[in-house]
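Hello Y.,

Per our agreement to keep a running log of every chain we model this quarter, I'm adding this entry. I've kept the format consistent with earlier entries: sequence first, then predicted structure.
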Amino acid sequence: MVGTLGLLVISALAFPVAYAEVRLTGRVTDANSAPVSGARIALQSPAASLQTVSDPTGAFRFDLTAPGDYSLSAEREGYFQVKDRPIQLRDGANEVTLVLNPVREQFESVQVSASPPGIDFDKTVSEQVLSGADILEAPYPTTHSLRNAMRLLPNAIQDSAGGIHINGGGQEQVLYTLDGFNLNDPLTGRLESRLSVEAVRSLEVSSGAIPAEFGKGSAATMAVKTGTGDDKLRYSGTNFVPGVASHKGLVLQDWTPRFGLSGPIEKGRAWFSDSADAQYTQHVIEELPRGHDRTASWNLSNLLHTQVNLTPSNIFYTGFLLNYSYAPRSGLSVLDPPPTTIDQRARQWFLHLKDQVYFGHGALAEFGFASNQTFRREIPQGHGLYLLTPDGKSGNYYVDSIAKGSRDQFLTNVFLPSFHWYGSHQIKAGADLDRVHYWQNVQRTGYENFREDGTPVSEVRFGGSGLLARSNYEASSYVEDTWKLRPRLLVEAGMRQDWDALVGNTSVSPRLGVAWAPPRLQYTKISAGYAVIREASNLRLFTRPLDQYVLTTHFLPGGGFIGPQASLFAIDNHDLLTPTYRNLTASLEQRLPGGIHARLDYLRRRGENGLTYANALRTNQKLTEGRAASMGATGFDGFFELGNERRDVFDSVELTLRQQFRGPYDWMASYTRSRAFSNSVVDLSADSPTVITNNVGRMPWDSPNRFAGWGDVPLPRKDWTLPFMVEYHDGFPFSIQDDAGRLKGAINSFRLPAFFELNTHIEHRFVFREHRWAGRVGFNNITNHKNPTVVNNNTESRNFMSYYGGQGRTLVFRIRWLGRAEKP
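Predicted structure for the entry above:
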């Protein structure tokens, strides 16, 4: 790989550099003068055709050999195109500014087309983009959920519990950023926040050899970018009329009202946008008796975003996200009746501030601060023991908890002026400082495992205090050079440094990527990259030894018992290494006839030195009888020590086709072949009732074959469209166990039935009483395919291998109010 890149660099340097007589420089901005990076700019004349991409400051440059009349075009996903703008270039320096307006609603403009997906010749990273319009139009289930919208990405898959996994990684292995700031939960490292889909301008996922700017996400980085208002007052509302469904009688179900308001604070200088989102869900379990068969929950979120242009070259951004949720009887299912459920409450507020200063000549600096504060409460229905039988559960859930988390983040990014030395260079550098804190007060009762005949197998109790607090400090810095050696040859090289107090060492990770457009192949791009990515320390792993310990009593079949036996979690190794992933990528992009964009991606991820707990009971000499007695135990069941034993493997080949036609209409289809393995499939903790001796196997979200497609195509009648979505993938793996909770056979050696879902809707956009509306009706899972999410995996149960869950055919209505209609 490195040798190939070296040959490309040497061959490029062997050619003489041609000096231009005509120079065109410019910037791409939005209507509020904020820079638009990654815009594709094309300059054409009868004798020349050139392309480039705007840098992070929005700047671009063309060097030409002759003046004359040209046409200039610019496009970026999520914005309306600037198409064939005439421009006359003189000898010497020429300057221009291009303004791209964001796509807010397809209904809003019939004269201007949204920018189609294109080939970015000035980027080496593998990137998938969903625009705000894509998210609003595709008919995925529960279209109010941004998490569910991520299913539209070819390299993302949603597990049976609703979690999103990108490039085969765990939920905590993706770095989520909101307008540039870390949005991951301070404790779990996952995306727990809710955002209104109307607030999102785009989702941009970088995979494989991601730029040095991004760390802490070994599987991918997902940038959530939100919009702000402009000089026009805009408002919208969606699903403000509650829906009624028939589930053992009429019930109010899945009411998801959303409202948006944006506009000027001071025209030409300051703007705001506010998006409010609510969700009321009534969940009915058909198999449970009336009165014990349903649960309802509320989720609320609000995102306020502002932009103030302090001067033409100084822009100040603010954002405030508020989340609240209340979910009584959480976890209710056919195997989990009401007494076993918990009442959950959670809230979050996320504040971020950013000051961006443009110095001219392509130089820009930005400074930002963000604070993420979270609170969670879990209350069981009682304080009895939790009873696990082969046919289901009874008693009360055993955890009663209060938890608080926080992250304070300071960041700075600097874009230096571009310069020429054997080609053009754009250097970017930055730093990131974080303080992460967690506090909990958890009280656990215990649980019992029973045989099919009702006799007990084991009883688990907990000792010690569940009151704890722990903090971590992180510091990162990076520098990256985007080096265009030739107009069709690009090299991106970067270096990143990461340090955190928990592991206590400093690690350096290189990044390297190359993109090449072969001569005489105008619409072809070949790219490859290699990156070493250091994974962020998970605070949850480091709090485990401070938490309660486990005391297990084992009951013998003929009577009598052994125990209680203690199980401990400890961090005795003070020379822990930073978990490291080595990602290798290769991509081929081609524009096919009809404007179809084809892309073939290969990704190889290898994780080493991952942090995980392994049972070191047999080798530990510190576990004496006296220590066991001090804990109220007769001996030890396990001593789980944190170490660097985790190894992960992921490989994938992905083919994606996408086409935009007749203005705003488009479709996408993808097929992914992949595998995801690990030697730490299950994260061992005190709250895991499963006894595992061999933790090597497929990850729970492994799906070797996945096909996904979606689109929005016009119908013969004007303003009528057919949105659709289809997904097929192999069933997720699961394990089987006996009535003592011990796994039988290899972990995850069985699979759920294959998943298939086809959603087809019809939408009509119209004007009523001088306002714009969009009405939609259709079916989710129109084939009524059974897609179970739960299995009875207890080999001693009479219902062993019975499947439950899944959503059958559902009739869906949606009405959107899009604001006042513009007068012709």
